[in-house]
Structures are given as structure tokens and as C-alpha cells.
Amino acid sequence: MQELKAKKLAEMANLIRRGAIEAVYSGKSGHPGGSLSIAEILAYLYFEEMHIDPQRPALPGRDRFVLSKGHCAPALYAALAHRGFFPVEELRTFRHANSRLQGHPDMVGVPGVDMTTGSLGQGISAACGMALAAKRQGQDFRVYTIVGDGESEEGQVWEAAMFAAHYRLDNLCLFIDFNGLQIDGPVTEIMNCTPHDAKFAAFGWHVISICAHDFDQIEAALREARATKDKPTAIIARSVKGKGVSFMENQTDWHGKAPNDEQYRQAMAELRAISEQITPKGDVSHG
Amino acid sequence: MAEMIATRDAYGKTLVELGGQRDFFVLDADLSKSTKTEAFGKVYPHRFINCGIAEGNMMGVAAGIAATGTPVFASTFAMFAAGRAFEQVRNSIGYPHLNVKICATHAGITVGEDGATHQCNEDIALMRTIPGMVVMSPADAPEAAACVRAALDIDGPVYIRLGRAACPVITDTPEYRFTVGKGQVLAEGSDLTIVANGYMVHLALEARGLLAQEGISARVADIHTIKPIDTELLADCARRTGAILTAEEHSIMGGLGSAVAEVLGECCPVPLLRMGMNDTYGKSGNVKELLQLFGFTAPHMAEKAKALLQKKAAR
Predict the structure, then answer these.
(1) According to the CATH classification, is domain B4-168 in 3.40.50.970?
(2) Domain ranges (residues) in chain B
(3) How many domains does chain A divide into?
(4) Which residue in the set A122, A137, A162 is minimally distant from B92, CB to CB?
(5) What CATH number belongs to B184-313?
(6) What is the pLDDT of residues A82-138, one digit of tens each?
(7) Does the complex come out with an ipTM higher than 0.90?
(8) What pLDDT score does B108 carry?
């Protein structure tokens, strides 16, 4: 990947992380851990991969994104805001009464949100419906979705997996955010849903395993997904829950709570420091 | 003798007719022979999607298709549409107010031999609580066809309850006008009103005949739309006849009886009796046996009406 592009994407992922922390801090509630683990995937999808137009969020032929793990809305809202779907300042209204930024994504109220999600296991089914509608109606848009590894304990995920393979939805690309943690502890201890790769392969999917924080791997996987015919693609993306904030990384406790004032300041300082490493002060590409 | 047609048959036939005029998808969960969506699948295979025995996923797929702008009819038995997939219907279809028409067949005890696991007496109660969901329970084949057609013109989710058993055609009269949310008075009367829907409507007309032989004048109102309910007509029935008997092939908790009680309680309390499944499960048996067993017959209804009149007189 070109250095400039890599820097731009890294900066976008950093902005998504800062936006997610800002939102959860302002809302005094939300899910920072899983939001931070999907920042690179969202950055690549919204700033590189998907054919979308913030000026026309309901364009019929646009690519679709469904955040099946809807509790990570803070990251999605941050990506949408930075992509220009609504003002970045609005992130501070997250989870407040009268804000359109509901605790979980609401397609009716928020421009750019393609599907209402939040109840685990349901988004992937909707993504299947969108992909099938495209195929049956001769449209060439693609559908992307992120399912959490914990979420994959929901039976509906596997109903959808069966459906997508049966109807050869090669326009559907699924990321499993494999951060290894769920609310009550490590997924392997609470309800072991591994191995995802063998399961999806057995269900008839094309499977790719990557590091969720490596843009070269994300890019290569999406290219491979696009080239794969007659099969949906599952990208098993090994991630770090809480990625980018030292005290949140790999900590189950940070699944669903807001940072206090001190923690917020530290988290933002750490993320700004990462940003400065990506684009040192004076670099014209910054901001 | 009126023609006998099941409302599910009218649904299947209407889908095929509409298929030539309008763009929509039809989804089923391996019950297309029973729900009667099979015919649509044969004529329009490109717009028919069998989702297999996975109702939760089917509702999600329906939501996803509807989110791209094309309406969807999704069918399975009422037990699995409203029961098993309740939460998917609520969160993936109801909350985003998507254009999905859930047409659920095999509702109530007239499922017959399959027994309690397949006889859903709770679907109306469940669907009625979902904000924005229109809920209909047609009385016969023409009314079922009208409901299905009307559903396609509604921008949002609709639940239509359909039956397995054939029942007589009663709404093919020149006076009959179908409007969503507006009940229909099928016969006039002054002593009480039998407010019914679905399979119970033709029994209500029969009961009216029995009551007439004893000098009792019963009005019969067909409330095909349980939500939004026709408050105006119910208030009119309460004022004019002073007593209401509700009749439904559903639990008396949460269905038509409850909906009517809510309206009457708030606007015009009059003596009320509710006829339906009373905190119980169905059983196996043929339709005739089951109707007798659970008291869903015209003579039973006439007896209830007389009990109601005693209540009215004691006031």
C-alpha cells in the first residue's frame, strides 16, 4: 500500500477511535471495547472500499454496510460523521434523549445507517436480504457486515450463514471481529464458538483470516472477496478489544462502560499521541 | 349454501394476481405448500425465496430486502411467525418500520390434528404490542384477499392472520366495503352486539339466527382490523345495543376481546363477555370436534349472548 494512503487510513482509524471514545464519554454509557477493535475495518470500508455518497445517503445503487454487532455504534457513528454524513460535533449527543444517535444504530433517524441493529444475530440476516435483493434485481452493489465473535454464539448467525451460501451471495462480505472477549469473559470460556474459519468453510463460505488492524491485509482480503464468485466471503479478523487505549486493551471490563473524566483524558491523550506518530506535526497531510 | 374457502387459499391466489401488477418478494420457511405461497413461487420463481426452516433468519432477510426498497410478504405458520420470530419481527421489521407483510397461516385451533404446538392462540396479542404494526384477521376468503391487497398499499409492517380450515364466504355482498381500520356491520340488531373476527364471524351470524328464534336481536360487527381498531364503531355498538360479546379464535387475553375491553373501558363501559381460548392450550382433533370441545359453535355463542343479556338486565 502506498505510504500516503496507509497514513490517511491510519489517521481515519484514529479519528474513528477518538470519535467513539468522545461519544461514549459524552453519553456516559456505551461500548468502547468492541468499537475500538473495528476501527481499521470501518476506516477501510468507509474511506476506501464502499461506493457511497454522503450527499445522497439513500442512493439505491450504493454499497451497504450492516453493523450486526450494533452495540459498537460509537465507531460506526464516528466513521459516518468523518465521512460527512452528519456533523462530527453530533457525536457528543450519543445516547442522550432527543439525539438521533441512539444507543444502537437506527436506520430511520441517521443518514448513512443502512440497517437498524442491536439485537445480536439479526444484522447478518438483513445483510443477506440486501445481497439477495441486489442479485435478484440485477443490481451490482455489494453488502458488508461485521459480526462479533461473541455474537456468533447466536443461532441466527448460522441460519444466515446457511442462507448466504445456499443463494451464492458472492456480493456479501462478512467480517468476524475476533477480539476473543464477551461480556462475561473470554469467548473460549463462556461459550466456545471457535474455530470460525472451519465452521464458515463447512457452511460453504470462502474464508480468509487476517489481522484486523493491518490495512494491507484488509485490502488484500477485500480484493479477494470481490474476486470470489458463487460464494460469500467470511473474513476472520483477529483483533484487540479496546485497541489503541492502553488500559482498555484486552480488558473484558471495557466491553460496555464509559470512561470517567480522568480515563477519558488519558484515552484521548494516548490516541492523539498515536495520531502524531502517524502524521508528525508539520506534515501537510495531517487533519 | 355458501362457498367454502380457507383464507390461506385466498392469500395464495391473491399473491399470484398481485404479482403481475406490483413488484414485491415472497418469502417462506419450508411451508409454501401449506401457506399457499407455492403458487406464487411457480409463476414468479425469481421473486420467491424459500428460506428453509429458519424463521428468525427469514424475518431478517425480509427486513434486508425491504430496506433496499422492495416490499416483502413473509409467510409461515402463526406459531413461528409471531411466536418463534417475535423478536426479529419486533427489532428488525417493526422498529425500523420496514415494508414487510407477515402473512401467517394456521392460526388458532382450527389447525386441527397437529395439536397445541402448532395452534397459535397468542399471535394477535404479540403482534398488537409492536408499535406501528397493523394487525388484521379476515373472516373469509374475499376479506382475506382485500386485506392482502390493502397491506401492499400500507407503507410499513402488517400482520395478517390466516386460517387453515375452509370457512363459508360471507362478505361477498353488495353492501360490503373493506377499509383498513374500519369494522363492518354485517347484520343489524338492538339487544347486543357480537363483535367477532376471523373464523368466528360466520359463527356469529349463525348465532344471530338462533337468537332471533328466541326473540333476541343481535348486531354482528366484523372487526377484521384489530389494530388500528375501529373505536368509533365499537362506541356506536355500545351505545346502540348496550352489551357486547366478543368472539375470537384466540386467547381472550391480548386479542380482540382485550382490545374491545380497552376501548369500552375508556370510552363507554357496557356489559361485556369475551369468548375465545380461556388461558388454555389447544388439542389434537378434527376441526369439528375441536370447535365443539372448546365451545366455538353457534349454540355456545348464543348461550353466551343470553348470559350477557342477564348481565345487562342486572345492571
Answers:
(1) yes
(2) 4-168, 184-313
(3) 1
(4) A122
(5) 3.40.50.920
(6) 999 999 999 999 999 999 999 999 999 999 999 999 999 999 999 999 999 999 999
(7) yes
(8) 98
Positive/negative CA dihedral, B297, B299, B300, B301: positive
Between the alpha carbon of residue A56 and those of residues A37, A177, A213, the distances in Å are 28, 29, 30
For residue A123, tell me if it sits in a domain.
yes
Residue A287 domain-assigned (yes or no): no
Question: Which is the catalytic residue, given B3, B17, B38, B55?
Answer: B55
CATH of the domain at A149: 3.40.50.970
What pLDDT shows up at residue A282?
A: 55
State which residues form the domain around A87: 3-278
Task: Evaluate whether residue A286 is within a structural domain.
Answer: no
Tell me if chain B has a CB within 8 Å of the CB of A122: yes
Residue B55 known to be catalytic: yes
Angle at B30 between CA B27 and CA B34, to 5 degrees: 90
As a whole number of angstroms, the distance between CA A268 and CA B52 comes to 48
Cβ pair B54:A162 closer than 8 A? yes
The owner of cell 403481475 is B20
% of chain A with per-residue pLDDT over 70? 98
Answer whether residue A285 shows pLDDT above 80.
no
CB atoms B57 and A127 under 8 Å: no
Looking at CA atoms only, how far is residue B252 from chain A in angstroms? 30
Cβ-Cβ contacts under 8 Å for B273 (sequence gap 6 or more): B244, B245, B246, B304, B307, B308, B311
How close B47 gets to chain A, by Cα (Å)? 7
